[in-house]
Amino acid sequence: MNKQSRLGAWIAIGVGTLYFVLPLLSTFEFSLRMRRGEYSFDAYRVVFADAHFQESFLYSTFQAVATIIVGVLIVVPTAYWIRLRLPRLRPIVEFITLMPLVIPAIVIVFGYLRLYNSSSWLPLTANARTTDLLLTFSYVTLALPYMYRAVDTGLRSIDVRTLTEAAENLGAGMVTILFRIILPNIKSAVLSGAFLTFAIVIGEFTMASLLNRPAFGPYLQNVGANRAYEPSALAVIAFLVTWACMGLINIFGRQKQTKHAA
Amino acid sequence: MAFLELANIRKSFDQTTVVHDFDLAIEQGEFVSFLGPSGCGKTTVLRMVAGFESPSSGSIRINGKEVTHLRANQRNVGMVFQAYALFPNMTVAENVAFGMKVAKRPQAEIASRVEEMLQLIKLPHLAGRYPYQMSGGQQQRVALARALAGKPQLLLLDEPLSALDAKIRISLREEIRALQRKLGITTIFVTHDQEEALSMSDRIVVMNEGRAEQIGTPSEIYNTPATRFVASFVGTLSFLKAKVLDPQAGQLLIDNQTIRTGRALTAQQGETWSVALRPESLTLVNGHALPDGNRMQGLVEEVAFLGSVVRIRVRFQEGAIHLDTFNNPATALPERGSEVSVHFAPQDLLVLERLDA
Asked: Does residue A4 form part of some domain?
């Protein structure tokens, strides 16, 4: 690489870094200005002390965990079965799993409201518990492209067919094969999908807001509309949660690579 | 009654039939190899015995019990795969114990059986290792121990040595055969390597295009091949065209030279037949004739040094033959282009099939 193109690359990296980092730094700096004349973590203290923050964060965390469990239970057996017995269906399933990326969340949630409203044949929005359930399923749909791709990549890295046949030959049934052979061997891929799902669910606004559930996304919006410094503190917290998830994906991904390289 | 019986097995995928009317009976404790080129159907037959494929027609009986439509996990058949197929998330001991755990055997029995199996494959010190921490040969031995741990009634080996390097392949094939003899377990071994099949088997099934071309002992397969395919697939053969001179006296004409077969032929005078010779049945002779042998004159076309053996190609008008001679530094090798006499015994000439039918 000659000097000129290396300089160009460094300029591009510098501009990109400024583009991403400057707003974050500015948000962080602004979140420290709550006390007049000096920097403090007052905004963070106020946020953490707010009962609504704790409730909404806990609610979204619970939703994220439920979404991950339901997602794994749906996606892992499906992707496994497609890979093992129905490889011809793979393009169709991949297309279906990509649809949540192209259909806006608001369209999906309006569809749900029409299908499951209180006067429908399955009135899931009739009470808070069943609406929570509907929100979990909505999140499963929303996270489907990420979870499916992560699991499918994991399945691609092992010899699904031979491992299945080896286990079958030793007397194992399908449930044993799935939970004792397949799932442990794609653990890091499933975890990657899980952390991505967690990051998506924790800050999701549209679905939670339209289904009127006390999630972290609507809380962020509400605080942002009414306060000055706290929204910046919340934005930084939300970024940290997402980065923590990305960091965990990297750690588990690297562990797997090391194991395979050994 | 044979221990394993395959009767009229046929397997089709869509419009393509990959196994045609396959019949085989294997006695208890026998080691039978399926030998053939890629795509000949040998692995498909094995997979049908294991229960991974269902025959389109025909029946499979193991120890007198009909298993044709039984699922793979209900057959009590041990299998070793080409790609080892050890469970990466389990240690060696856990891999060996897996089948017994699934069968819910008592913990103490599992522990003692795992130890016994690891002793048998001489790897007790690797019980705590994971598959990725072992060599290919070690992994395949563990796969063998895992397949045998549950005391299966039949052992299936699907090209278990193909992924290993030459030296380990030879030592492991001796180990497998010794283990099989020690345990007396009925075994089917799938391979495309004729040397493996010849050296390990009680009987060999040579397969081609989904059919059993010949079933016999290694000696029968090698010395008296039933078809041209078997003759060409097993060992190295040189083919020549021969005209039948006198069928009763067993005389043929090759390159205008009279050749004796030493037996009466079921052919008519004047017909053209394909005959073949193995490299090790030929010798170079200098001047004097050998009693009771055939002798043909030809030109040396190629001399290939293979280490302990030297392979010489001699050209005749009707084709070329290869002959093997031991490497002896004291003896000069013939020059390319020189005229030589090749000698072979009448019984070593394989008369295969009529060409002008």
From this structure: no
